[in-house]
Batch of 4 targets.
Target 1
Amino acid sequence: MASLKPVLARLASGATLSAEEAEAAFDIIMSGEATPAQIAGLLMAMRVRRETVAELTGAVRAMRARMASMAAPPDAVDVCGTGGDNAGTLNVSTAVTFVLAGCGVPVAKHGNRALSSQTGGADVLAALGVNVDVGLDRLPDVLTAARCVFLFAPRHHAALRHAAGPRVELGTRTIFNLLGPLANPAGVRRQLTGVNDPIWLRPMAETLHALGTERAWLVHGQGLDELTLAGPSQVVALHDGAYREFSVAPADAGLAHSPIEAIRGGDAATNAGALRALLHGEPGPYRDTVLLNAAAGLIVAGAVQDLRSGAVRAAEAIDNGSAAAALDKLQQATA
């Protein structure tokens, strides 16, 4: 039986792991062959000196090898974030999913229940009448019918249960907080990925490139794991192997500045009501935040060239009812 002990000895000496070594180590964890103490030791040894791109890459490969995957068209995108910003905002990436689908972009959204917010993607979707536990074999048909599908992380990554206890007991960020957005079960090659700490923008972009991603925006906005109206947001863009680092402001999309407090959320029912109102044309900071992020998603999808035209197209999808129709279709397809 494989053991983590040699790996722990190397990490204790300050060594880093190659992608192959990290993949083997995380496969041991996800196979259930490591003890809780060994898992906690590995996670903290990496955390205190900061995880490397090679370690992230190997860990994601191990996750992908054991996940319940699904087929998706080559132009499908994911919009999700690391969580962990503890801001308790309304659900932005979930709303963006319907806007992009309304624009004709297929979205395979990876998500979970509430972790750092009051209401996670799974929570608000359930409140909107979407069945997040629909059979895994039906997911490709759901995506075809609705142009969007929700991939509920615990169902696709059951092997992570072996690390759940140590993660809870440690009570601090570990590499697993970074892995979710990098391990989309549909194997998408295009992603809009929010990061709660800007130090991870470039490493996560490099990891996605190593894993075969074609286009991605890694974004951080004033403490949030998404683009914000509250000030400049930081972006690392990946496009066919080339990286570009820049900042974006609301004005770049023709939108007004607004404080983060303007999109504070509540429980699942509250957030679901706000999302439904947004899809039916309600103006305000929540709509504008979604337009900004949807514009970035359209750039990643290759549908537009800049944020301003992306925001216009996103607004059209809301105002002509296409975004609301995507939600209705998702409800029907998952019934």
Target 2
Amino acid sequence: MQFGIFSVSDITRDPISGITPSEAERIDAVVTIAKHAEEVGLDVFAIGEHHNPPFFSSSPTTLLSFIAAQTERLIVSTATTLITTNDPVRIAEEYAMLQHLSKGRMDLMLGRGNTAPVYPWFGQDIRQSLPLALENYNLLHRLWRQDVVDWEGKFRTPLQGFTATPRPLDDVPPFVWHGSIRTPEIAEQAAYYGDGFFANNIFWPKEHYIRLVNFYRQRFEHYGHGTKKQAIVGLGGQAYLAARSQDAKAEFRPYFDEAPVYGNGPSLEEFSDLTPLSVGSPQEVIEKTLTFREYFGDYQRQLFLVDHAGMPLPMVLKQLDLLGGEVVPVLRRELAAKREPGVAEAPTHGGLVKAKYGDAEPRQPRPNANRGDNVTGQSPYQDSDASLEASYPGL
């Protein structure tokens, strides 16, 4: 099972100091947070995509490439890649490039986002958000699996003989999670393609997410990808830890009360009772997180939000120390001991390559490989002892 953190990239005033960090300070802080996540033994760092203040992460692939270059084993991912307002051709190209640069240490989560004005900014109609999500992913799915694509849809110009470059590393597309807060059609989409389903699992009571996850599992099995327990599920959550429960509540309360997504609503205690928010000692966070398996079954990825609402960098790094040092090792051990036989492993590039090729050498695509030099037409393989087809079956 994979454990990690995600950030929504908000730039929020610290309610204790009254200081609002600059964009430069916040970007640098997030890079430090991601690197420290690897240092304390976490597996995944994910960032959201936003195109409006007070968020900075308008270009997740640029940020994640930079982080991947400074880490060795951390999986970099997105907490949302906007499938509705991004052109699927650009998603195919940018994330395939990230896949190459990270040597496969990446995946992405597709979603529709939660900011209505972004649609007209990118020439789209929010009333078409669901059809956009479905059609755009259908195209993205093909662009990563077919070297030459002919396609026509409703929301963009047709493609004729189009090849997205670079081709996916090892000819294995990046693993895709479909993220949803409330929409069963997105769970259906994830199940149809045999992809992962990520339930936000922060804002609403567990009963809401249980319905979505169970529906996804049923439809995953219906489409023949495996049994319900083999479906690939990820969960979000937010945690704040301190050595003592009362200290955790006292330290986190000012940030909770003025958080853009929490403030002026239920109290910290009420919200913690109603939702998966965990504020307390490491043992309390462990115990609450272990209940997720009781509600959702065995799952593959758990991400925590730890840097929201103006929390200063030293406080976030302390949270990571507690997560990596005291919480995650216990969760790994406890969840592994309870895991049922036959449950799918957490997705990795290496696992996907192994599933496709077994012990054979992966295919490394060369688009238009027989064309050779664009001027002379001379093929670089003309004098090769082994034919191109023998070296790269299927080209």
Target 3
Amino acid sequence: MKKYPADEKNIRPLGRTLFLDDMRYMDWCCSGAEFMFTGTEISVEIWTDWILDEPWKTIFQAYMAVYINDEELPRKKFALDAGTNSYTIYKSEKAETVKIRLIKLSEGSFSKAALKSISADGEISPTKPAERRIEFIGDSITCGFGIEGSCAEEGFRTETENSAVNYASLTAKRFGADHSLISWSTIGLYSSWSDDGNINNGWIMPMLYDYTDLGLEGIIGAKEHFLWDFGKYPSDVIVINLGTNDVSYTKDIPERLKGFERAYADFLRHIREKNRSAHIICTLGMMGDELFPQIENAVRSLNDEKISALRFDVQKEEDGIGAEKHPNTVTHKKAAEKLSEKISEVTGWKTV
């Protein structure tokens, strides 16, 4: 078996990943690595910061998935055990050439992960990027939080968080596009989720957006910040799905609503600064659309013909509800259909 480092000579990074000290950190949902492989067996060495020191902490394990040759369903889905371990991700009786995609299904706010090396009995090489690229900025909905849960009363587990079947991944697949998810549960744009009615702005999306993985840096003891290279990975379309958590603070208080609207407009200006030519679509609604009027106002205030708003339909009881009242696969499919229509409208893209 030959050991390969997870650098760009051997793999193509998916989403925002950080390559540091020969480790490919892949924390964001759907981040990972893709490569071609010719041989019979391949394994990966992966590190996670997850520690099982209490039985209940099994709900926070990081989950990975392996897809072969763009198949609909993963060949393998597995939880990462504590520390660094080796996992066989592909094995066949005879040598053949296959495309392998290794992605993280769960979000970085619960458990971190890093690809340390790839061991194979044959050759590997990076795949080519898609012609289109979509970036999704959001909260737990965009993470696929609770998407595979059985009911609204079910508690959260990373096992039922599946970013590969959420509205973002389904939409990207419709257009044959690469995509990245910048999403974090409970996060807001103006205020993250507030239990006590006070503003919670110590960790909001505008703080994270410019960085490759700001939530990782403290965990690994980084001595510097790692800015994301927007020029190296330009997005054609950017979808923002924020505001669901902000409403816990804004409520119906006029000055707070206005504050959210101003903050949203400021964030849009910043995104435009970093992404000069991208179409930006501002969405909200799957778990409530109370702040959509403020989003529309913010969009209008920029007078930018490549920025538009799209209201998602609020999830319905008859479609089923996922864990902790989050959208399930049915609702995500409906949102993907609506978003795909909007993307086709503003870009002229056809689905594949």
Target 4
Amino acid sequence: MKIGVPKEILPGETRVAASPDSVKKFTALGVEMLIESGAGEAASISDEMLEDAGARIVPDAAALYAEADMIFKVGGPCCNGNGAVDELAMMKPDAILIGLLNPLYRRDQAEAYAKHGLTSFAMELIPRISRAQSMDALSSQSNISGYKAVIDAAETFGKILPMMMTAAGTIVPARVLVLGAGVAGLQAIATAHRLGAIVSAFDVRPAVKEQVESLGATFIEVENADSESAETAGGYAREMGADYLQRQADLIHETLKKQDICITTAQIPGKQAPVLITEAMVKDMKNGSVIVDLATETGGNCELSERDAVVVKHGVTIIGYANYPARVPTDTSSLYARNLYNFISPMIDGESGSIAIDWDDEVIKGALLTRGGSVVNAALTEKNA
């Protein structure tokens, strides 16, 4: 079997779906790894490093797609006019495609994969069960995003984060609010706390209170009679009712007035990100404050955020990079490559190097997007039934 790893061509995508470590591991299983020349450059992974690990470097994407039985991507392939090059058209019709395909937002592309005859797996649909934790690409990427968001905020903020006692006087610590205590939010809390800030956090799910407090932050919550329904079976936040949302907005507004930095991470799978910070709230923040909005790819948590831009509104700097994992490509690529290996390696026969997929496996069924010319994942078929 030949696994192909092309160079990502969407603007701003610096990650690559392979690392020297993953190449070595796949090669040991009898798999031939084909990697497009220059695929790892933006992640500081050279062709030589990959070649030394056992990969075969191919000159261009067309040559790679013509040979590859399985294709590893970071983002979905360009097709249906979403890129200058139609990557999908170059793939073999019976190939297997694996990547962060974002099917809940890009149903049309999932339909295109099916029409082309691909068997495809979306890494973000891997079920959140204990056995699949090492395959959870959303978590591995979000973890780094939460860290980087705090670093970017600290660099932009015009003061230091920790308390500092000097001969000239005492500098008070910065106050950081994190909205959303998922993987990214928890890492943001931990990072801000390590840097010496006074940290508080908000989440609609009361179940995360203990995690927030264990990281040294204060948990801010809205009294809610329906707290048990605030979390989906998969561990994500659920949309809440109008009364709760109004009380939530009032609480966030009052809290933001006292903060120096706010990191927002709230997202709902398959939907636009909830707006948690309105223009009126921004107006009432301290002059020189910083907001880092990690949800701009799906609309943003701040009403004034601009995708892939840093803007200053009402004296507040708002950072809105849509692809935060791509801002730390060396580590995020390495982690993503491990996720792919952990997902695929159980399907590979160690003696022959051929693939044998257990279609009844819970993880396989959860991630499977298209097969046999159809979109087959329940998250899409049931929604459109």
